[in-house]
Amino acid sequence: MVENDTLALKTNNVYVHYGSKMAINNVAVDFHKNQVTSLIGPSGCGKSTFLRCLNRMNDVIDICKVQGEFHLNGIDIYGPEIQVENLRKQVGMVFQKPNPFPKTIYENVAYGPKIHGIASTKTELDDIVKDTLNRAGLYSEVKDRLDDIATGLSGGQQQRLCIARAIAIKPEIILMDEPCSALDPIATAVIEELINELKENYTIVIVTHSMQQAARISDKTAYFHLGEMIEFGVTSNIFTNPKHEMTEAYISGRIG
Amino acid sequence: MTQHINTAFDDGLADVNKQIVKLGALAETQLDNSITALKDKNIKKFDSIIQRDKKLDELTAEVSSSVFELIALWSPIAYDLRSLLVADRVGAILERVGDYSKNIARRSQVIVTEESFDRLPVNIVGLGEHVQGLLRQSLDAYMENDIQKAMTIWESDIDTDRLYLSIFKEIVSYMSDNPDDAKMLTHMVFISKNLERVGDYTTSIAKQTYFLTEGEYPDTKRPKAMTTY
After folding, report:
1. What tens-digit pLDDT sequence spans chain B (229 residues)?
2. Range of the domain at A97
3. Which of A57, A74, A154, B136 has CB atoms 3.0–4.6 Å from A52's, for a disulfide?
4. B6 to chain A, minimum CA–CA distance in Å?
5. B148 touches chain A (CB under 8 A)
6. Closest Cβ opposite residue B77 in set A252, A255, A256
7. What is this model's ipTM?
8. What CATH number does the domain containing B135 carry?
9. What is the reported pTM?
10. Whole-number Å distance between alpha carbons of B208 and A107
11. How far apart are CA B200 and CA B163, in angstroms?
């Protein structure tokens, strides 16, 4: 595990309601810099809802009410002075299904840096696109067809392009919501290796239904059940000797 | 521990446990036979012990193979993984117990025909019966997942050490007065040492039982009565 105890994102007393239905009940998780944290639990346990709170993706759902503390480098991300666009630049997101823009590979990566004013010249933008695709482990596969439409790439390549799109605007945190669920084992292994490399520069929070994936790639794991966080700890402890019976039952596929 | 949603893994684990029960029963029988054959000077029994050791090896291989297959097919974690790792380790321990029983039988074959054998005052059979009791209790503790019982065995190894030490000293003392019996007495030292090692292995089973339930090893050092004999 990466030895870095610096906090990237601190959450505390988090409650989320969809109308009158409670989706998250008093959750607190600390996310440390340069670590991968997995959120696991059965469908409907609130792990994706919680993930989406971390870059205010739930803001667009009218009936969703989020309460609690969310401090990114000590700053309240739900504070009145926070601009959501800027927050999402700092906290990027990769979704379950690869969703490249129906544009060229180059434009997919260049779009973020362009609108956030990260590149001032075409040469600078070219360098960012090349560097980002390299860091996403995709450049060697697409360097001769940067002007091809991105939707022509394979599923695994599209997902790596989405990761490239997320890191092109230099976020601090990358949220991933089941990023490999639509991929074959080889494409999954490539993404997992990429996540392992990316954590040198980013903090990663990933929702996954694959216990083995959580065990392979994350430093810390949080187990959610019915909106509550049942157990949070070092991944190797969670998967070898969980302290809570509910965690043991879930990860072992037992009747809880 | 509740059953799995997909019960096929439970069935596989139950099969491994049945194999271990069978292996444990055979290892106990081999040890018991080696001790009673020594007590009764039963030459025929020694041969059957030596022959039957192959069966113990086969059963151990079956346990390993089943464990390997379950790990490969199910990728178990937490308690499930510990169950399989411990089953494999206990299987290997029982196979070693069988090896020691066979070695006791081989050495006993040589010494029971010696004319001076009956005159020896040493109580090897007593050590054997003590170790036999430990083996039975350690297997019970493992099968019943009983940590208290396991820790009692873990702590009682000092008694085995003391019994062995006393026998060792008696043999050495007897040897200086009866140098002509040196060969027989050396075999007796080895037989006693084999029994003492079986005692050590019963504490290993106890340690594995603790690990199976707690997910970590006992943090106390096993009490020992000697280090160099």
Report:
1. 889 999 999 999 999 999 999 999 999 999 999 999 999 999 999 999 999 999 999 999 999 999 999 999 999 999 999 999 999 999 999 999 999 999 999 999 999 988 888 877 788 999 999 999 999 999 999 999 999 999 999 888 899 999 999 999 999 999 998 999 999 999 999 999 999 999 999 999 999 999 999 999 988 776 666 555 5
2. 7-251
3. A57
4. 7
5. no
6. A252
7. 0.79
8. 1.20.58.220
9. 0.86
10. 58
11. 13
